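in:
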């Protein structure tokens, strides 16, 4: 048997099956920690035991890193087929401050967003793919009604742009172009044509990127366009962010009936955009306002709103 040179120069036996190539030219098995953790239990209790847990096509359990707008955060292990509602409400303890569940993003930064209308979906590989998401790394980020889905897509895509190795053009350039379009939309300068361009770019990037990062990078954008398209349209047509997250689309206003004229908002405004006399309703100059929110934080009467 001939030899090949190893990574330290020592001879290594050539594998008997030339078609199989892995690290240093020898057969190689790559698995994640979760896979290895399952192996001892399967050996001890048998394949039938393992197959009895989960669904017909997705066997066993799955560990999720539960986070976001949820009372109980941390690692949770559940049988495949557990519903999203059970994870959010029973294990996660529900949404803080009485807020409504809006969506959950599964699979890590390249996963998709599952809307509230599918909260009773059974979590397994096939169901997540059908919703435009994936199991991925097992991340599960919960979002409440105060989450802007356009902004959340921008957040995850910004991560992907930063993590791209830059080797292939579709991922290196394509994801950056998508991010620029999302920034354009959230700043109030988007057009309806931008949505078509986002979808075209996403399809090209998925089909032509060399690795899994690029092939899945568009998922957050595509899933939010699919399930929350009306929010994109609001940002573009109405110049409005219903969650009040995108600063360029916000307007701060004093509600006259609630304002007591205490002047605290005016005294704490960093750009002197608020004026008014003591014990009289104040006014915000929108041309000066930088939308920092200091006025809302300092108003004890709930007299300032952002729209």
């Amino acid at each position: 048997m001939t030899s090949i040179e190893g990574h330290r120069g020592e001879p290594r036996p050539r594998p008997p099956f030339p078609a199989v190539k892995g690290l240093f030219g020898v057969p190689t098995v790559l698995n994640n920690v979760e896979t290895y953790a399952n192996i001892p239990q399967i050996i001890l209790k048998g394949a039938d035991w393992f197959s009895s847990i989960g669904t017909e096509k997705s066997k066993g359990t799955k560990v999720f890193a539960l986070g976001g707008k949820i009372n109980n955060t941390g690692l949770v292990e559940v049988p495949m087929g557990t519903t999203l509602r059970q994870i959010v409400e029973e294990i996660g303890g529900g949404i803080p401050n009485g807020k409504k569940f809006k969506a959950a993003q599964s699979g890590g930064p390249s996963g998709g967003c599952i809307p509230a209308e599918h909260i009773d979906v059974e979590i397994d590989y096939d169901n997540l793919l059908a919703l435009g998401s994936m199991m991925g790394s097992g991340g599960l980020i919960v979002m409440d009604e105060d989450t802007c889905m356009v902004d959340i897509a921008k957040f995850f895509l910004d991560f992907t742009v930063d993590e791209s190795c830059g080797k292939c053009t579709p991922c290196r350039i394509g994801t950056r172009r998508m991010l620029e379009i999302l920034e354009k939309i959230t700043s109030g300068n988007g057009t309806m044509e931008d949505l078509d361009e986002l979808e075209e770019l996403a399809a090209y990037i998925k089909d032509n990127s060399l690795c899994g990062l690029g092939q899945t990078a568009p998922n957050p954008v595509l899933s939010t366009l699919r399930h929350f398209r009306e929010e994109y349209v609001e940002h573009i047509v109405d110049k409005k962010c219903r969650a009040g997250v995108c600063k360029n689309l916000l307007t701060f206003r004093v509600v006259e009936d609630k304002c007591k004229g205490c002047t605290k908002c005016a005294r704490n405004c960093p750009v002197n955009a608020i004026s008014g006399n003591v014990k009289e309703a104040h006014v915000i100059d929108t041309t000066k306002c930088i939308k920092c929110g200091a006025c809302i934080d300092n108003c004890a009467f709930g007299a300032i709103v952002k729209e």
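note: The chain is about 40% helix and 15% strand.
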